[in-house]
Amino acid sequence: xxxxxxxxxxxxxxxxxxxxxxxxxxxxxxxxxxxxxxxxxxxxxxxxxxxxxxxxxxxxxxxxxxxxxxxxxxxxxxxxxxxxxxxxxxxxxxxxxxxxxxxxxxxxxxxxxxxxxxxxxx
Amino acid sequence: xxxxxxxxxxxxxxxxxxxxxxxxxxxxxxxxxxxxxxxxxxxxxxxxxxxxxxxxxxxxxxxxxxxxxxxxxxxxxxxxxxxxxxxxxxxxxxxxxxxxxxxxxxxxxxxxxxxxxxxxxx
DNA sequence: AAATTACGAAACCATTTGGTTTCCTTTTCT
DNA sequence: AGAAAAGGAAACCAAATGGTTTCGTAATTT
Lengths: 122, 122
What we know:
The structure is a homodimer. The first copy, chain A, has a 3-stranded antiparallel β-sheet. Chain A is mainly α. The two termini of chain A are 30 Å apart. Chain A has helices spanning 7-10, 15-18, 22-31, 38-42, 49-61, 83-98, 100-110; strands at 36-37, 65-70, 73-78. Chain A binds chain B through residues 16-17, 19-20, 22-23, 25-26, 28-29, 32-33, 78, 80-81, 83-84, 86-87, 89-90, 93-94, 96-97, 100, 113-114, 117-122, and chain B through 16-17, 19-22, 25-26, 28-36, 44, 77-78, 80-81, 83-84, 86-87, 89-90, 93-94, 96-97, 113-114, 118-119, 121-122. Chain A binds a DNA duplex through helix 5.
């Protein structure tokens, strides 16, 4: 369904790296409601316009932002779709904080935590 | 005893930065099932033991890993709890990757799109 | 036509990052 | 006691990151 069939090879920045920077998370928050040209965007951040532009490029590399040229301006908007990968990554770990009390109880009862539990794979 | 010591010190590395590196995500995956000493951990990664140690330090700064000294070895295990912050950050954006028909319906029904909770941080 | 606006590109810089090797201390094994 | 094992700490290095200023060019305004 996605229009990019060479998705794996072209991405220089992944979603994990893209959201690591607080400025970029701020950009996503700003662009989630609709598109905005670069000048308007950069007025929200304490840095120069080219700096914001570079962050936008990184977000675009990760697919988190789409751009559209309108006259002499470039408008950006967020695309939340790549966050699905983050969601599924997170989903794996959810049970480890939901069952924390269970884990504690198991620890106390057996007096031997993690018995026979070798991590199976990387 | 203590069920909440999170308010104590502001860490140098946050959870977003900690999971940005693929090696560190591999470490979490390895340590989620139980604790493991550093040598055993580093044997799973194509780098030297001190390099792995530094990654572990970063994870510990973010609270994602706990260490325990046992004899001459230091055993690490994952603590998934800080991932809750990531979860709540993500929760805000989840509605935006639901399919476009849902988004349109929400727009029409509420007459006020995209109003609601804010992400927990930038 | 000329000036202005919008913005990407490039050159440059300081700091951080991810890795290495070397060394030191503590603990365990013979 | 002496040797070996475990792992942290420090010095060092190349590359990536996050920022700047300057410049070029296409679109718009006057």
